[in-house]
Amino acid sequence: MKSWKFVMASTILGSSVLLGACGGNTAQQGNSGETQLSGSVSGDGSSTVAPILEGIVEEYAGVQPNVQVTVGVSGTGGGFEKFKQGATDFTNASRPIKEEEAKSLEEAGIDYTEFLLAYDGLTVVVSKENDWVEDLTVEDLKKLWVEDGTTKKWSDINPEWPDEEVVFYSPGSDSGTFDYFNEVILEEEDLVKSATLSEDDNVLVQGIQADPNAIGFFGFAYYAANEDTLKAVKIGGIEPTHDTIASGEYSPLSRPLFLYAKNESAQDEVVYDFLEYTLENAGEMAEAVGYVAPPEEEHDKELKELETLKQ
């Protein structure tokens, strides 16, 4: 198994990565006989997927130092918008593409291919200083997070809990994590208006760490990197762990993570090489940062799918 030089914490704390430097995409033979590439690759999208891609970009720089790879983090929705505008070669998503997004890409003349990178467990967290919340049901989450015109207090869920106002932190509306929570928990009802929203999961982490009355949610990797100061809340008695996410037992908050590649970009030698490297290593990197790798047969299927894009 590959031994990653990558340190997880550096990726979790970063919001984007820019490595290497070059002009147009070219190739030349290196001293050791391997093909050394020169060019650029651009991506954007989900902050949940970012730890995987940022780690891969860092490792790829050691293989192809003359390739510049940028990975922005504007959220799943924001990433699809840039993808539609032709500004990126790929976009990361923490949910499947929406019907309206697929239609807008078709109208823009952009053909794309979906690749599964990993599985995640959307994790509901509170501060370590919160000593009363251990387990919530889906119904509890909905009662807390749906806007109903009232001031939400912990005692609304359990009268033995503090009569203190709940402080909410949520991914922004461009986030695929927000969309997923909206679908499976809120059931398309409005999120509490008092919530602090941010596309940067590190902002959410810091806000929850500092307030015992705070609650929030984001990808499992961000919890794993901060579990000394955050507490994961069990959902229906099930704790989010590698095993419960992999088995699907952590339901309904387990979900797939994706990369969408522009088919035309994949025909470029440099972009193809980076995408191939990503698919070959995404599973191990996913495990390194706290997510769950897809089965080996899924990995083989993804690589064969990519190969069909090469010309």
UniProtKB/TrEMBL annotation:
Q: Which residues form the PBP domain?
A: 32-279
Gene3D superfamilies of this UniProt entry? Answer: Periplasmic binding protein-like II (3.40.190.10)
Give the Pfam families listed for this entry.
PBP_like_2
CDD domains attached here?
A: PBP2_phosphate_like_2
User: Which sequence ranges are marked TM in the entry?
Assistant: none
**Keywords in alphabetical order:** Cell membrane, Lipoprotein, Membrane, Palmitate, Phosphate transport, Signal, Transport
Functionally, this protein is described as follows: Involved in the system for phosphate transport across the cytoplasmic membrane.
Question: How is this protein named in the record?
Answer: Phosphate-binding protein
Q: Which organism is it from?
A: Planococcus shixiaomingii
